[in-house]
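Practice problem 4.
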């Protein structure tokens, strides 16, 4: 029997049709970039030197990731079967979800958290189960434990978390991994360098643990797209079936060894941010702006109902910050990346002006009533 063609256009999967479009606000960023938690300064000069050594002929070759993966594994104290390089942590999340999530599975997420977990999960057939943090935005450990079911397939935890800046403890992560042996517990340590605590040393002990790292934050290589996914050799074997062998390009691969080697530069940038963070916290307290304690290179602040106006005023004065109001439990809250001390001194001046303008505007509105 001849089958009739009845549809006139290619139709994507139902899940893809119901996906929301996600456009990060990356346009017109010629300003002080305190909106994407990037390094706000520069990458190591050693990386620039490595780029300058790349020849025209080098561009003609497909990238070979294995030698660099071996180097990264050694740097992390792992075997090379435990480590994959990825096109940013975003690819690690995407590939991990594609490898494990199928119809009926649950992705368990404490929220608010990093947006791309839900974006990539919504392209799979799995269901997203969220656990909302309390007003203090601390890691909702007990309620997360209670939300584990036989269908839980992945638990994704950004540690430290964004946009809250809060962190789960090592003990909490161990307990979660033990209580959900049938699920992958993915700890996204994108902001590790500003926190200094890791669970990557537990990979041999906890077979369902996976850890992601990025070169986009402290290392200052967001534009190169370099991430790491680490886990047991067995879990990594499944992930590698899905991962493209060429997703990390040869320029990124050439830049990674000098970036790793230049620990002096990394230490300098991290200490600069931590110093600036303390100063910025003091300035927020002085201005009477509520803030959440942060273990990362950003701070979430409570601006209240005029959050959009605040972000506009900051942008008009040359400082980009990120409105997180539409995140669960974050109405009126704005996330501000921490840069160098000099940059943050400038940001404080601009922020105080913006807050003064908002106060003046609400006072005159009050007068009019
Ligand atoms: N994880 C978290 C928690 C993040 O905040 C971000 C970036 N904002 C990423 C991952 C993305 O990292 P990458 O640039 O390596 O894709």
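Answer key:
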């Amino acid at each position: 029997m001849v089958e009739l063609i009845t549809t006139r256009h290619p139709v994507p999967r139902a899940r893809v049709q119901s996906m929301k479009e996600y456009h990060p606000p990356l346009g017109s960023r010629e300003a002080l970039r305190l909106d994407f938690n990037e390094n706000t300064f520069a990458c190591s000069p050693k990386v620039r030197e490595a780029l300058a050594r790349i020849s025209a002929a080098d561009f003609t070759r497909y990238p070979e990731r294995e030698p660099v993966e071996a180097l990264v594994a050694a740097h992390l104290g792992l075997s090379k079967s435990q480590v994959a390089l990825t096109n940013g942590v975003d690819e690690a999340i995407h590939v991990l979800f594609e490898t494990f999530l199928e119809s009926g599975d649950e992705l368990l997420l404490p929220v608010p958290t990093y947006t791309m977990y839900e974006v990539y999960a919504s392209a799979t057939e799995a269901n997203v189960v969220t656990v909302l943090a309390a007003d203090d935005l601390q890691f909702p450990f007990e309620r997360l434990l209670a939300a584990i079911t036989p269908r839980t397939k992945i638990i994704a935890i950004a540690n430290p978390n964004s946009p809250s800046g809060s962190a789960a403890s090592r003990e909490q992560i161990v307990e979660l991994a033990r209580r959900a042996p049938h699920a992958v517990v993915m700890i996204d340590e994108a902001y590790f360098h500003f926190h200094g605590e890791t669970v990557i040393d537990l990979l041999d002990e906890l077979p369902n643990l996976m850890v992601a790292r990025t070169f986009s934050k402290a290392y200052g290589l967001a534009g190169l797209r370099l991430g790491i996914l680490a886990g047991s050799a067995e879990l990594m074997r499944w992930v590698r079936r899905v991962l493209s062998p060429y997703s990390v390009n040869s320029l990124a691969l050439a830049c990674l060894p000098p970036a790793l080697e230049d620990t002096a530069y990394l230490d300098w940038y991290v200490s600069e941010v931590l110093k600036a963070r303390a100063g910025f916290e003091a300035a927020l307290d002085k201005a009477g702006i509520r803030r959440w304690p942060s273990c990362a290179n950003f701070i979430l602040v409570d601006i209240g109902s005029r959050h959009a106006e605040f972000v506009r005023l900051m942008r008009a004065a040359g400082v980009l910050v990120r409105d997180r109001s539409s995140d669960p439990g974050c109405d009126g809250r704005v996330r501000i990346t921490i840069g160098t001390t000099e940059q943050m001194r400038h940001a404080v001046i601009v922020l105080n002006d913006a807050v003064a303008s908002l106060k003046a505007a609400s006072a005159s509105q009050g007068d009019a009533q």
